[in-house]
Amino acid sequence: MGSADSKLNFRKAVIQLTTKTQPVEATDDAFWDQFWADTATSVQDVFALVPAAEIRAVREESPSNLATLCYKAVEKLVQGAESGCHSEKERQIVLNCSRLLTRVLPYIFEDPDWRGFFWSTVPGAGRGGQGEEDDENARPLAESLLLAIADLLFCPDFTVQSHRRSAVDSAEDVHSLDSCEYIWEAGVGFAHSPQPNYVHDLNRMELLKLLLTCFSEAMYLPPAPESGSSNPWVQFFCSTENRHALPLFTSLLNTVCAYDPVGYGIPYNHLLFSDYREPLVEEAAQVLIVTLDHDSATSTSPTVDGTTTGTAMDDADPPGPENLFVNYLSRIHREETYLPNSTKKIQFHQELLVLFWKLCDFNKKFLFFVLKSSDVLDILVPILYFLNDARADQSRVGLMHIGVFILLLLSGERNFGVRLNKPYSVRVPMDIPVFTGTHADLLIVVFHKIITSGHQRLQPLFDCLLTIVVNVSPYLKSLSMVTANKLLHLLEAFSTTWFLYSAAQNHHLVFFLLEVFNNIIQYQFDGNSNLVYAIIRKRSAFHQLANLPTDPPTIHKALQRRRRTPEPLSRTGSQEGASMEGSRPAAPAEPGTLKTSLVATPGIDKLTEKSQVSEDGTLRSLEPEPQQSSADGSPAEGEPSQAWREQRRLSSTSASLQWSPTSEWVLSWKSKLPLQTIMRLLQVLVPQVEKICIDKGLTDESEILRFLQHGTLVGLLPVPHPILIRKYQANSGTAMWFRTYMWGVIYLRNVDPPVWYDTDVKLFEIQRV
């Protein structure tokens, strides 16, 4: 049958379904087989030939026919899984049913009245899989569908290579088949790399697309942190009910991690060959991150059976969560597990960042492995590249957040700060000033660029960015002059009176910066003559802070000035210098670009918990101090409070209507500014530097730097304060943020076919820039 005839017949069947007012019996095979038995329609055809309006019409006007269509399609998938899909016709039926369900499922999820449909039982679909008539033992349709997809993903000659040695060998029995021997790619728990097979990859993609569509019921529920992460589809698929859970987890992980976008060692070969593997890797990454959507802040669940021995997983760990995928991920311990690195720009970098986040969050051994080598820098540089590149683009604000969250998580570990001292020589083209220095310089210069020239919606990230710098500052041995100037420029910008007085929380940014300077002066003075010199040159900024006016007329005057100031931060006083060769400026989003909304992120006080570094290097968690109540809502010791966070959430316009600075408010935090160490440094060094300049008639800063390099403040500074680290802590707020971000990425990335477009999703809003 020709392709055109096939499409025409399929379309006729769809029209029949939408126009029939009477229920069609499930036993009417002649009618139902039109949808899958005799057609050769691609997934794109199915989306074109089954319009959204017609699916909704059947749902409203002949619900029993839609129910039967879904039931019959699932039945065909179950039959295909049972038989092993040995004939070409059986495989075609499985693919057609898979495409049809991918098309229809979102319209079932968008209607609350239909949401329970797949979890209802179907007569005759027993749990034994033998079709017992015992309805009490019947499986919900969703379970039958998920188990059939899992079986089909390990179906010899359909989605995996057959192990038969010759055509006369009997076909492998799908029931006795050990799918651990059919893992898709070498890596965790599997040493053999099967021969690539284009057709198997395409079939896997179709089934993974259907699996992702099953999981996407989460998109049709509004965001609610208290709902936890109990997606019933994911819960069942990742439970012990799925006998393929382990091989499927390792297949997905190994497919993503073994992906070499360049291949054959030929540079730029992606310009010569089309890469058919990338779509499968992207699909695998998306399914993987959705199965790992688990709130680690609340997970205490019973153990699983010990099926993971000998699979590069640790059995000695305490019992993990019921979600087997999370359990397996948390127990991988082989050092060979690594994330792909590539010279080709891949399109699914956001999914990889989520996967990296999950690995670090659920598997501390993986985190320590990444940090004990310089591999962490191979991850840092691309993240900084993406942060810098996306800073002006409103449609990529989610990417900015996940990049910053990953760096916040890493910055809580001492090894990350130490690794940053490695010289930076890669020179990825970025539109940042040219500098000679370390990875710490790169990090701070990029953060400065984000703060001074990113778009307005990034302001809630400022305290995260500065917390990262505070966390690594005690370990930074030598900052470049470019970086030192950037830090002082931030202090000047943040300590102007109009900025300090224009929002209840802005002074916290100054507290963070002063903490950075204090850490470096107290713990890394010897190698940081550039920063000491910059502090001396910009000493007026510190004197202005110490003498900050607190009288009402001056406060009022500063706010009047703010209304005349168009930009949130002045860039004057920051010498930009030439940008790196080959870089292009960060561009805003193209008008009309689609983006998805995100829930608010928790404040830095909810995101982190304070720990003190002991003399032996161990961390001691600090109890949260009770907030000092003050009329202004200013928290103790310059730390953010809940009230402070709430004010942060308000837009600056509404905030200014509800809050105005008072003298008492300014005094309450001005007295706590940690200026003693810096003032003592200035008191000791400024007269010495001035004397050298007068005595030697110096105007050359290299001589002054040489003097500062050999200077010492031993015994002259206050007693060093304990190092405070603010470590990321898992919480339901970030779990909800990741859920909305992850599904937003998946929604926008799946455009061919557009699985969820124009359906009534509730988890986020779709907006145009």
Largest sheet: 3 strands, antiparallel
pLDDT averaged residue by residue:
82
Q: How would you classify the quaternary structure?
A: single chain
Query: Which regions have little confidence, pLDDT < 50, spanning 5+ residues?
Result: 124-133, 263-274, 299-311, 316-320, 338-343, 626-656
Shape: elongated
Task: Report the end-to-end length measured between terminal Cα atoms.
Answer: 46 Å
Adjacency order of strands in the biggest sheet: 5-4-6
Number of separate strands:
7
Number of helices: 32
Whole-angstrom Rg: 30 Å
Proportion of strand residues: under 5%
Protein name: Protein HID1 isoform X4
Organism: Carlito syrichta (Philippine tarsier)
Region (Disordered): 297-316, 547-655
Biased composition (Low complexity): 297-313
Give a summary of the structure in a few sentences:
It is built from 32 helices and 7 strands.
Could you list some keywords that capture this structure?
769 residues, mainly alpha, three-stranded antiparallel beta sheet, 32 helices, Hid-1/Ecm30, Protein HID1 isoform X4
Question: Can you offer a commentary on this structure?
Answer:
The protein is mainly α and 769 residues long. Among the domains are: 1-123 and 138-162 and 191-215; 347-621 and 672-714 and 724-747, no CATH class. It contains 32 helices and seven strands. The chain has helices at 3-19, 29-32, 43-49, 52-61, 63-83, 88-109, 141-152, 198-215, 232-237, 245-257, 277-291, 324-331, 349-362, 364-372, 375-390, 397-411, 414-419, 439-453, 462-472, 481-494, 497-500, 507-523, 529-537, 539-546, 552-564, 604-607, 642-649, 652-658, 663-670, 676-696, 701-710, 732-749, and strands spanning 121-126, 138-140, 594-596, 608-613, 619-621, 724-728, 766-768. The strands form three sheets. A three-stranded antiparallel β-sheet has the order 5-4-6. Strands 1-2 form a two-stranded antiparallel sheet. A two-stranded antiparallel ribbon has the order 3-7. Helix 15 (375-390) runs parallel beside helix 18 (439-453), helix 18 (439-453) runs antiparallel to helix 19 and helix 23 packs across helix 31 (701-710). The protein is elongated, with a radius of gyration of 30 Å. Residues 297-316, 547-655 are annotated as: Disordered. InterPro entries: Hid-1/Ecm30. It holds the Pfam family Hid1.
